[in-house]
Every structure is written in structure tokens, then in C-alpha cells.
Amino acid sequence: MTAIVSALVRRARRDGGRPLITYYDLGTGARTELSGTTFANWVDKTYHLLAELDVRPGDVVALPLAVTDPGHWVTFALTAGAWQAGARVVAGEHDEAVVTAVGPGRMNGAGTVLACSLHPLGFGSETPLLPGVIDFSIDVRSQPDAHAEEPVAESAPAWSDPAASFTHADLAAVTPVSERVLVRPTTPLETLLAAYVAPLLGGGSAVVVTGGDEDAVARVATQERVA
Question: What mean pLDDT is predicted for residues 108-128?
Fold first, then answer.
């Protein structure tokens, strides 16, 4: 079990009721809060869906979603689920992807395409999907939420983007965060580390805010009591 996967298991078991990720879209007014237990359940369901789609250790799961929506909690759940499956996550397109996860308005990519509606209440896509495209929000809900994972070495590839590639050990070397912090999404990797990996490893939590001006963000920071 890699350090990051192990940390999520511990968080769910020992401190599962406390928020792990709180997501705001100030453009739409959406707010979604996931405790350690709730997020772990989503990750476990995602793992089982990916396994059902024949994702195996060493395979590529492509996430154009990480480029278009780097701070969304679904992006983090797909990433963490892929890590449990032993897959390498690629931020963007990849010709050899077994699964490609895309956001609203997209239905193309290598391998099996997962269409993610990103609806705040977890509803499916409002647009009819092309044949063969899977509605992530619908199909993932029927998966087991029992924890399972593939044996993965810390030295195995975990993440790639146009700039570099990283192993599980590389990502786990981030400075842990023990407080409740505000995160404004930037690049896919920086956002992932700041909003998910660092708080998870340090016992903290993140409030991820997209959209809005400085005053609106400041109000959220006060309401959420971020450090």
C-alpha cells in the first residue's frame, strides 16, 4: 500500500467524519463538502469502476478533466481511484489510455470514455451521451464501496503531465498540511498536491474555491475558518 493510499484508509477509519475537501464554485453558487469517509467511499467506488473497465497496474488513465477542472473533487476522486488500481494518471490526453475521463461538453478520447457531469448533487449528464461513453456519476454509484486495491510500489509511476513524470514516492514527499487551508486552483499537479495530497498526509483539510473575486473568496475563507 502506497503512503497516499494508506493515508486515505487511516483518515476514513480514524477521523472519517471531519471534512477533507470542501469545494466551491462561486460562479454557480455550488458547494460540496466531503468528509474523509465520504471521499474514501467515492474513491473505492471509482477503483471498482476502473477495474470493471479493465484498468490494471501500469495502465494509463487519462484525465483531460484535470486540465479543465483541476480543483474539482471528482478530479481528485478519479486520480485517487486510479492510484488504487495501480494506474498512471496523465493530466490530459494519452493515446494509450485505457480510460479517459472528460468534463461537460466532451465525449471523445482514447479507450473507454467517462463523461463527468460535475453536477453538485451528483446527477448524470444532461446531454445524451454517444454510444460507448459511460456516465461516470451514474455508473460509479452502483459500484461497491468496500476498500480494495492493487499492490503498487512507491517507485511506480503515479502522475505525468507535459512538464514531468512522478512516482508515488515523489508525490508523497510534499510538505504535509495539518490546518484547514484555502486553495485556488492553478496547474493540475500543484492543485492536486495542495488540495488533496498535502492535507491528506498531514491530517488537514482543504477548501477549494473556483471563480469569484477577492472579496467573495475572503468571505468564504472566513466562513470556512481556514488558516
Answer: 93
Burial of 96 (0-12, 13-18, 19+ CB in 10 A): exposed
Bridge partner residues of 183 (DSSP): 208
pTM, two decimals, is 0.98
Give bridge partners of residue 97 from the DSSP assignment: 60
Residue type, 35: S
Beta strands in the chain (DSSP E): 19-25, 30-35, 60-62, 88-90, 97-102, 112-115, 134-135, 157-160, 165-167, 180-183, 205-210
Other beta carbons less than 10 A from residue 132's beta carbon:
8
Report how far apart, in Å, the C-alpha atoms of 30 and of each of 12, 49, 50, 105, 136 are: 24, 26, 27, 19, 19
What is the number of alpha carbons within 13 Å of residue 76 lying toward its C-beta? 31
> Of 128, 47, 62, 58, nearest to 95 (Cα)?
62
Helix (H, G, I), strand (E, B) or coil at 24: strand
Question: What are the tens digits of pLDDT across the range 202-224?
Answer: 999 999 999 999 999 999 999 99
CB 165 within 8 A of CB 159: yes
Question: 29 burial class (0-12, 13-18, 19+ CB within 10 angstroms)?
Answer: exposed
